[in-house]
Design goal:
Number of domains of chain A: 1
Oligomer: heterodimer
CATH architecture of chain A: Orthogonal Bundle
Strand content of chain B: under 5%
Number of strands of chain B: 0
Radius of gyration of chain A: 22 Å
Strand order of the largest sheet of chain A: 1-2
Distance between the termini of chain A: 44 Å
CATH class of chain A: Mainly Alpha
Order of helices and strands of chain A: HEEHHHHHHHHHHHH
Order of helices and strands of chain B: HHHHHHHHHHHHHH
Mean pLDDT of chain B: 74
CATH superfamily of chain A: MetI-like
Structural class of chain A: mainly alpha
CATH architecture of chain B: Orthogonal Bundle
Number of helices of chain A: 13
Structural class of chain B: mainly alpha
Shape of chain B: globular
Largest sheet of chain B: none
CATH topology of chain B: MetI-like fold
């Protein structure tokens, strides 16, 4: 980490030794219009993916926590996408979205919105099984008595979901959110294979921008500056999440029972 | 000696201080027994979303390259052929597979050898330093691999490891460790203090307690760690992409990526290679679904 920070003050093309250049890389970073764009895309992708994945996996997870046989079988099927690597999944959708071959005969990856939505969808397709599993585990740990008590009080299914399931799952939601936010940075593969940051630079999220600067243009100093920025942003975001949700206090959800 | 005083791991779940974990058979859930049409419909929709791409992949990978561009990908292949699979298997697939297996095994080995003792120390000692070390480790969870590839590249080049399997193994293991420690600390914390005291009274050394008490009781956490780090190693793409170059140390994911340029527009062959790359993990899933799913559920923690 420290080394990354140091390198951000140097010019290095991968051969020979890094040469110190002071703040040049950072100045370049702040002046780079692609950074603002990339930051915007990254944040938008984070929000869109979080909303989509959390809603779907929370519902699926709670649903799958039931003991019915059909739910167990379907859950087993739902889990299959997670077994494939991101590379494989990205390739699969690259093929399926291919305008000459694919299911949908339109050039989705060629349009800005289409490419963005495709990345959100492909990421969700891959990671929802995992988060569903986390929610399933969380939902199964909710004590049965809470539901029995609620049923005696006459609470219906939806009331029970909002008054018991959701509050009881709040730590699970935090865990899953942090994993999602950090995991989003691995969407790199998806972006690299599906869109190569395109059309133009419309889907070039920060990690991709860094990859391009470092390993395509061999400007490792500049890549390090982007990387340092990325770390600060990611760490800040997860600390903020932990603080906001009070997860760090290690309080049990069972308090007062 | 102290053997008789230890409970067997199988009974661990029934201890009263873990109210949330009851063995499966004892769980009763009337509240979900009633049919829930809305949820049923939702899950049916998701089933379609999951199954259709997989089906299209399988059917296309069985189609001859000449027909691929004309037919509808959703209709079943008219005369299925295994040609695509043959093409892929003759393009160095076995080499990629064995490299990937080596990486996965080595990563799991390193992670276990380092993280189990580390988590044990973090839980058992209450000095300021062990707490600090633990928190430093947790910070590692938030650091994305992408952020450190450039300095890692420098380190690996200086260590003369560039373009070797070790260049993939070491960083992958390092990045699997924070989560591993987190999960293991979570499990080891649940081992009750009384048991340690009982062993200490019998004169057991800390090392003995680790092997005969902590590890058997933390089996669940350990299997989580094994599965999690193996999956990471198996599916890792960034480190192989950046730290290797030649055919020698190439792993499966990178091989897939290269198939894109190799097969070009031959999408059926491309999809066949995707299917083949998924088969080993899928086999493990079929054989050990319960352990795999239970293990991953552990990542979500408590």
């Amino acid at each position: 980490m420290a080394l990354a920070f140091y390198l951000s003050f140097t010019k290095w093309d991968g051969l020979g030794d890094p040469k110190p250049v002071g703040l040049a890389n950072w100045r370049k970073l702040l002046d780079d219009p692609r950074l603002t764009q990339s930051l915007g895309v990254t944040l938008l992708l984070m929000v869109a993916s979080w909303v989509f994945q959390t809603v779907v996996s929370l519902l699926l997870g709670v649903w799958a926590a039931g003991q019915q046989r059909n739910r167990a079988i379907l859950s087993a099927v739902f889990f299959v996408p997670f077994l494939l690597s991101s590379t494989a999944i990205a390739l699969l959708f690259y093929a399926l979205l291919d305008p000459n071959f694919g299911i949908i005969q339109a050039n989705i990856l060629g349009s800005t919105d289409g490419a963005f939505l495709a990345i959100v969808f492909v990421g969700a397709w891959q990671f929802i099984p995992f988060h569903t599993l986390i929610y399933q585990g969380g939902a199964r740990q909710i004590p049965e008595v809470l539901y029995q008590a609620a049923a005696i009080d006459g609470a219906g299914r939806y009331r029970q979901f909002f008054s018991i399931t959701l509050p009881q799952l709040r730590h699970t939601i935090t865990t899953s959110t942090v994993l999602m936010v950090v995991g989003l940075l691995t969407y790199f593969e998806t972006v690299l294979i599906l869109t190569k940051g395109g059309p133009g630079t419309d889907t070039a999220i920060l990690p991709y921008l860094m990859y391009e600067a470092g390993f395509k243009n061999y400007d490792f100093g500049y890549a390090s500056a982007i990387a340092s920025f990325l770390v600060v942003a990611a760490t800040g975001l997860s600390l903020l999440l932990v603080r906001l949700t009070g997860f760090g206090r290690m309080r049990s959800t069972r308090e007062g029972m | 000696m102290s053997h008789d005083t230890l409970p067997r791991p199988a009974t661990a779940g029934e201890r009263p201080e873990q109210p949330g974990r009851r063995p499966d058979g004892r769980r009763r859930r009337h509240w979900t027994r009633r049919p829930n049409p809305v949820a049923g419909l939702g899950s049916a929709i998701w089933l379609v979303i999951v199954v259709v791409p997989i089906y299209a992949m399988l059917s296309a990978s069985l189609t001859g390259p000449d027909k691929a561009l004309t037919g509808n990908p959703l209709s079943p292949p008219t005369d299925p052929t295994l040609d695509n699979y043959n093409t892929v298997l003759h393009s160095g697939f076995w080499h990629l597979l064995s490299n990937t297996v080596i990486v996965a095994v080595a990563v799991v080995g390193i992670v276990l050898a380092l993280c189990v003792p580390l988590a044990y120390v973090a839980v058992r000692t209450r000095t300021r330093w062990s707490g600090l070390a633990f928190r430093l480790f947790l910070l590692g969870v938030a650091i994305p691999a992408q952020a450190v590839v450039v300095p890692l590249y420098l380190l690996i080049a200086k260590l003369d490891l560039y373009d070797t399997l070790l260049a993939v193994i070491l960083p992958t293991a390092a990045f699997a460790m924070p989560v591993a420690v987190l999960v293991l600390v979570g499990t080891l914390r649940d081992v009750s203090e009384d048991l340690y005291e009982a062993m200490a009274l019998d004169g057991a050394s800390p090392l003995r307690m680790l092997f005969q008490l902590a590890i058997p009781l933390a089996k669940g956490g350990i299997s989580t760690v094994v599965i999690f780090s193996a999956l990471q190693a198996w599916n890792g793409f960034l480190f192989p992409l950046i730290f290797t170059q030649s055919d020698g140390p190439r792993v499966l994911t990178l091989g897939l990526f290269n198939f894109v340029s190799q097969f070009g527009v031959n999408i059926p062959a491309l999809l066949a290679s995707v299917v083949l790359s998924g088969i080993p993990i899928f086999t493990v899933y079929l054989v050990a679904r319960r352990a795999l799913v239970g293990g991953l559920m552990g990542v979500g923690g408590k």
